[in-house]
Design brief:
Layout: E1 5-7, H1 12-18, E2 26-29, H2 35-40, E3 48-51, E4 62-65, E5 68-72, H3 77-81, H4 84-89, H5 92-97, H6 103-106, H7 111-116, H8 124-130, E6 134-139, E7 142-147, H9 148-151, E8 152-154, E9 157-158, E10 164-171, E11 178-185, E12 193-204, E13 207-216, E14 223-224, H10 226-232, H11 239-252, H12 263-283
Helix pairs in contact: 10-11, 11-12
Length: 285
């Protein structure tokens, strides 16, 4: 790696002021688990990194307000994994963490970094989208909120402006919503996925009232599949309905090929795993 400067501001305001929107070689760094790999590979060569590790003012921690949940952007993934509040409000999130990379990475990687990086292979974004998650964003122009599904705009691309930072992830009240995430890997269980499918289901007995279906890893970004959601709405949870939803998902998703599988292979996985994710959600697994 080429030499670079690292600065450690104490406040969010100072951090934002240090980020130069006109200089792409000046970038913030949270946990750094992904950024350091890019730097070692020569994909990114920074002139200055603005560390967010020493910020004060609520960038870390997990707070429950009623049935809603707020997770600070600098909260390590391992803290989310072991949080009783997260387990109570959104139990699907701790369940996915055990297969999200390895414990060493989870101890360092942060919630905000997992969202801001824009990598379609990340496991947290599709689950956050399925749960209706939103991010609180802070920048030189003030604060704004954005749905996670609108935050992710393309392959390693987000709607964040160069001088904006994610301050927190907000998960709305879940009520009786049931959720699940299926991660399909071509390697070890905690490897990058070839396909990710997250679902959130509102059901009445054996009938689905509404559904949110999200695909990741096989596409350029984590994204909802509206045709699969439409196929599931009002349907009974049986093989016919789940097959129809899988076919709708496979037809809608713009699948990409990579080292983890061909487009045809991933499309077939999607056909199957939409139904599996729905069944897992209904079983509470």
């Amino acid at each position: 790696m080429i030499p670079f400067e690292i600065v450690e501001p104490a406040t969010l305001k100072e951090a934002i002021a240090l980020i130069d929107p006109d200089d792409p070689s000046v970038r913030p760094i949270a946990g750094g688990t992904a950024l350091m790999l890019m730097m070692k590979a020569g994909v990114f060569q920074p002139r200055k990194l603005v560390s967010l590790r020493k910020l004060n003012g609520g960038m870390t921690g997990i707070k429950a307000q009623g049935e809603a949940l707020t997770i600070g952007a600098m909260t390590p993934l391992s803290e989310v994994e072991h949080s009783a509040e997260v387990a109570r409000h959104a139990p699907v999130i701790p369940r996915i963490m055990k297969r999200l990379s390895n414990v060493r990475v989870r101890n360092v990687a942060t919630v905000g970094g997992a969202l801001a990086h824009g990598d379609p292979h990340m496991d947290l974004p599709p689950v956050a989208i399925a749960l209706g998650g939103r991010v609180r964003i802070v920048g030189t122009s003030g604060e704004r909120e954005l749905a996670v599904e609108d935050l992710l705009t393309g392959y390693y691309e987000t709607a964040l402006k160069p001088n904006e930072l994610i301050a927190a992830l907000q998960i709305p009240p879940q009520g009786k919503t049931r959720a699940a995430y299926c991660k399909v890997t071509a390697g070890s269980a905690d490897d990058w996925p070839a396909l990710g499918v997250a679902v959130a289901i509102d059901a009445d007995g054996g009938a689905i009232k509404s559904a949110r279906v999200v695909v990741s890893a096989a596409t350029t970004k984590a994204m909802r599949l509206k045709s699969a959601e439409k196929a599931l709405a009002g349907a009974s949870i049986d093989d016919k309905a789940l097959k129809a939803a899988g076919e709708a998902a496979a037809a809608e998703a713009d699948i990409i090929a990579d080292v983890r599988g061909s487009a045809a292979y991933k499309r077939e996985l999607l056909r199957v795993y939409v139904g599996r994710a729905v069944r897992l959600a209904m079983e509470g697994k």
